[in-house]
Amino acid sequence: MNARGLRRYVDDLLRGRRPKPFRPDDFEAAQIRTAIDLQAARLGSDAPREEFLTDLRQRLAAQASGTSQPVGKPGATRRHVIVGTSAAAAAAVAAVSIDRTVIGGGQVADGYDNGSGELTPNTGRWTRVAASAEVPEGVMHPFDLGSVVGFVRRVDGKPEAVSGVCTHQGCRLWFDAPDDRLRCPCHSTSFSPAGQVLTHQLPIAPKPLPTLMVREQGGAIEVFVPPRPNEPA
Amino acid sequence: MTAHGESVDPRPLRVVRDGGYPDWEAVYQDNATWVYRTIFARVGNRADAEDLTAEVFLAALRPMRLTASVGEVRAYLRATARTVLAAHWRETLGREITSIDDDIEQPPESEEAISTAPQRVAEVLERLPDNYRGILELRFLQGRSIKESAAELGVSVANAKVLQHRALRLAAQVNEKDET
User: Fold this and answer.
1) What residue spans define the domains of chain B?
2) Closest-approach residue (CA) in chain B for A60
3) Does B58 sit within 8 Å of A86, measured CB to CB?
């Protein structure tokens, strides 16, 4: 019990001051939670100040150009110093999955590891996956070549193909035609016919589906794939 | 059948782009407001919300120096905010008061993901006696002083303080009951 600590905390919230630390019990914690909700429900209370946004932009610019002084700048609180490390460490962990992305400045990012954007086997062969007539515009045609499963479709007359395996944990996708999307049975992830992630429920978005090299020749659509697992290359 | 690199058309089949960010500044401009609002909804005051927002971006943009897709960047910023907020509560009150869910159906920049406080507050207030609801509305939702609120409710300042204290207790009980 710490009635005074709680009163002061709520009072600080109401006055828009930084509340002071104390050690609340369960019920005091619940009251703080409710007070925070009430504060947050005030119309327009949660718009960031323009000065703050500008100031932070400058600090980020300084950090980006390597001239940052994370500590000691006016406005840096004690907590910055303490938490700075743990947050950075945690962020580094969270960043692992997107850290590899290398995109030059100015270029519009497609945002993904370019290396896996297209499946290009070391050795492979053009393999027929469908007759041209089987893939009219608007149809998602599935194929299973043993080493690779995927879908081909036609976009502006040209064939395109994506992998049919979810980039999260490898579950096999199915095409939900009414919704025009590929769905993963494992974690409700869905992909557009082009392979972009449309919905997911994961902390970090899974990568888009790799595309496959595809061509149309002699009335057939062919995909460049590695040999079947049980065949020599 | 040709199976050699040369004969293979190397033209990359480009994935349709969802318009990623050209640089960190664009990441910041596009996301600063929802990150701030997400945090504000969970700390209830500007000073902490500003500090924690700054921490999120300073921590996140360092390893992120090159950008990912918009969706990935946002998921990542939200994950970083979750970590920063958890550390904040550990250090100030020694326990978790509020948190940022990692399991959301809506995108992080949507109102539902930023804050559900208005809906929750409305539900709680509805279940309070009139004078309790009145004092909380005046003090919190309208930001009126204790003196103004007392005058509005026709009670003394001392009474208004007691009323506010009790109203918050009851609201917290109602709120917690809803959660469990």
Assistant:
1) 24-114, 117-179
2) B58
3) no
CA distance B168 to B163: 8
Q: Is B110 on the interface with A (CB under 8 A)?
A: no
A102: distance to nearest CA of chain B, Å? 6
How does strand A181-183 pair with strand A220-225?
Answer: unpaired
Q: What number is the ipTM of this complex?
A: 0.85
Cβ pair B109, A44 in contact under 8 A: no
Domains in chain A: ranges and CATH = 3-41 (no CATH), 50-99 (no CATH), 114-225 (2.102.10.10)
Which of A34, A83, A118 is closest, CB to CB, to B87?
Answer: A83
pLDDT digits 0-9 by tens, B27-76: 899 999 999 999 999 999 999 999 999 999 998 887 654 547 888 889 98
| b/e per residue A222-231 (b: at least 16 CB within 10 A) | bbbbbbeeee
Q: Pick from B57, B84, B117: which is nearest to A60 by CB? A: B57
In whole angstroms, give the CA distance from residue A100 to residue B15. Answer: 18
* pLDDT band per the 50, 70, 90 thresholds, residue A103: very low
pLDDT at B16: 32
Over residues A116-165, the pLDDT tens digits come to 477 777 778 889 999 999 999 888 999 998 889 999 999 988 999 999 99
Contact between B53 and A56 using a beta-carbon 8 Å cutoff: yes
Rounded to a whole number, what is the distance in Å from the CA of B26 to chain A's nearest CA? 11
Tell me if A211 and B14 make a contact (CB, 8 A cut-off).
Answer: yes
Is B136 within 8 Å of chain A by CB? yes
The two structure tokens encoding residue A121: 């086997």
C-alpha angle A53/A56/A59, rounded to 5°? 155
Note which residues in 8-47 of chain B have CB less than 8 A from chain A.
8-10, 12-25, 28, 32-33, 36-37, 40-47
| CATH fold for the domain made of B117-179 | Arc Repressor Mutant, subunit A (1.10.10)
B95 contacts in A (CB within 8 Å)?
24, 29
Which positions ≥6 away from B146 have C-beta within 8 Å?
B139, B157, B160, B161, B164
